[in-house]
Fold this sequence. Notes:
Blueprint: H1 12-21, E1 26-30, H2 34-40, E2 47-51, E3 56-60, E4 73-76, H3 81-85, E5 92-95, H4 102-111, E6 116-119, H5 121-129, H6 133-155, H7 157-160, H8 165-178, E7 182-183, E8 188-191, E9 210-216, E10 218-220, E11 223-224, E12 227-233, H9 238-256, H10 264-275, E13 312-316, E14 319-322, E15 326-329, E16 332-337, E17 339-342
Parallel strand pairs: 1-5, 3-4, 5-6
Antiparallel strand pairs: 1-2, 2-3, 7-10, 8-9, 9-12, 10-11, 13-16, 14-15, 16-17
Helix pairs in contact: 6-8, 9-10
The chain binds manganese (II) ion (MN).
The site of manganese (II) ion has 4 residues, from loops.
Amino acid sequence: MMLYSYPKKMKLKEFQQYLKQEKIDLTVFIHPDINITYFTQLKPSFALLVITPTTASFYLSGLDDAPKLKCISVKVLKKGWEKKLANPKVKRVGINKDVISVGFWEKLHKIFPKAKLVDVSGELKKLRAQKTVEEIKKIAHACKVTDDAFNELINHWKKYKFKTEQDVSHFMEEYFSKHNCTTAFPTIVAMGKNAAIPHYNTSNCKLKRGFLLLDFGASYQNYNADCSRTVFIGNPNKAEKKLYELLLKAQQNATAQIKEGKTFWELQQLVRMQLGKYSSHFIHLLGHGVGIEIHEAPSFSMEAKEKIKNGQVFTIEPGIYFPKKCGLRIEDTILFGGKVKVLTKSKKELITL
Length: 353
Ligand SMILES: [Mn+2]
């Protein structure tokens, strides 16, 4: 088997190549488009990024630090920038339909009254789904800090005397921040029946006997980790242990079945088969891409029918939910480059606290 080698550079050149092919004169990205962060690796308070087939200009407000960037010229965003950008020769202007506001869309129409606005969001998703060496390093580091936080939590559970869900989420997020990270998303700590809501909002609900679901992830230099573990407070009975084992096997089996060319949807159907009578309690997709956004391409949906490709980072996160009773989810962030690399290494055997 040929070893897959990850691209070394961010995909600015590839994107410019695409613009050339599609005869798009320029693409305008406006805050808060995350693609600005993708191309510049920065997160300024406000910015405009203009990419043509041969140039890239990064316009920053005077209030942000002006960095030096390779292949991108950094300029100050001054009043009247619209007039400077206006060019009657421009026929096709690229926009990211996923982010652009109606207001900015109207503005672009005014700046380029004769141009056609062309959506480039699909191409951006495609480029970003294949991670570069630099991106992988950052995601792997975010996953390491995520694991470290979880280990600290379970190894010293008694010492911290957590009383509520929020006590636990505060601990995790403080750990991330002490280790030069931020939280990738608000940490979910869901006790008992609360965990039946997959996107539960952590509250001051008291910890008690039962399954406790944790969904957490650090973000390092804008790149995210995503991990879920379900632990048990007290002693689980036979049925509870069995349920956990079933889910764990499904998660591990899905991970083992990852193969280039297989669709994410197929992988999900395998998990559904394995969950058997609990399949109808698995109420979300099996996973999602992770990178500079916590949810990004590839998509696991049936409609997308996306195939597993080299260079992708995504989650595998089956769950079983019983409304008003309990919920379980086990999730890892995974890198695929010819072979499977599980980036989140936190223990998955049922932990009792
Ligand atoms: Mn996730």
